[in-house]
Amino acid sequence: MIVKQIELSDFRNIENEKIEFSEGINVIYGENAQGKTNILEAIYLFARGKSFRAFKDKELVRFGSNTAYAKLSYVKKEGEGLLGVEINKNTPKRFYRNKVRVNKTSEIIGEFRAVLFCPSHLGIIKDSASVRRRFLDVAISQLRPIYIKMLAKYNSVLENRNAILKMEEEQRDNLMLDVYSEEMAYLCADIASIRNEYIKKLDYWVKIFFEEMTKGKEAPKITYEVNVGENDFEQRESLKNRYLSLLKDNIDREIKYGVTLFGIHKDDLKIELNGKDSRFYSSQGQQRSLSLAMKMAEGEISREYSGEYPVFLFDDVLSELDDSRKRYILSNIKSRQVIITGCDKGVFESTEKCNFIKIENGKRINADILENEIIGEE
């Protein structure tokens, strides 16, 4: 999968720009706060359906404007594609596929696939379980759009069940509570099974990448931690019954706290290194290597699923890594399209065939990228 071009109008600090990309490594460089990350944010918007850093869509609209536009031209094995989005401060954003408006954001998820790696991802190992669940959910959603619908349904059931748990006894509808528990148990079994399948693949690829980074000196292991303990995830009915029993057996506790205490919203990835929990027994360098390996693995799983690599978006992560990890990234991304942001152009000047794009105050400074900015060629 290759991004050919992104067009932006009134997006963040970018008034009106059209930026073209080459098939290999693209380096967006410039000083801080010039708009480099805004370009990655716009590209990733079409992979995830929402920004990776804005809390509200209206934050994406340039100051003084009411509407922002973005248009992404890309190529995948099925042919060329075109996605667009209109973001208004006062109305929900609207996506377009090949100039035809789609009814729901979820309909464009999976059309264009990208792996994002930004500084916040370096903390995925030591951060809360919700961060690791979000990593899983975002990665799986691009591969299996139905997963988005399952999560949405689960969150709706969870919200309704919690509302009943918070009610006073005389108001509580115990029949509806049972209905929601049954529905939640089914969804837990389905979602947990899909997550577990993904984590098995993740564990396989992380082992490979980590072995390359450490020359086989350290051994990682990633497993899925669920509320119901060890399970055969292939036996959906049995797994559903385990979840249902957990919900019913703990109903008094949940009523006491007014919240659902069990379910896939409490699950986690257990990430070990050399047999020990990496959250507590790994150095910062080891944790960063694990985070990097997980992101590289995400790309490999996407390739296995679709038959082609996704686009890799690296937002200023090289400045956060030591020299050995920088070298590892730069030596392992040559066969993929990569769009990297950074302040220091010199980091990449020994890398062959880089397309350099300078951004200043939301504007592209150099327009002759195809002839003058590809280095490493005779």
Your description of this structure?
By secondary structure, this protein is an alpha/beta fold. The chain has two domains: 1-113 and 310-378, 3-Layer(aba) Sandwich (Rossmann fold), CATH 3.40.50.300; 121-307, Glutathione S-transferase Yfyf (Class Pi), Chain A, domain 2, CATH 1.20.1050. 40% of the residues lie in helices and 22% in strands. It has helices at 36-48, 129-143, 146-165, 174-214, 236-249, 251-257, 278-281, 284-306, 323-332, 369-372, and strands spanning 2-11, 14-20, 25-29, 67-76, 79-88, 94-97, 100-101, 114-117, 220-225, 268-273, 276-277, 311-315, 338-342, 354-360, 363-364. The strands form three sheets. A six-stranded antiparallel sheet has the order 2-1-4-5-6-7, with helices on one face. Strands 8-12-13-3-14-15 form a six-stranded mixed sheet, with helices on both faces. A three-stranded antiparallel sheet has the order 9-10-11. A hairpin with a 5-residue loop joins strand 5 and strand 6 (94-97). Helix 3 crosses helix 4 (174-214) and helix 4 (174-214) crosses helix 5. The longest helix is centred in the middle third of the chain and has 41 residues, at 174-214. It starts with a strand and ends in a 6-residue tail after the last helix. Mean pLDDT is 90; it is low at 367-378.
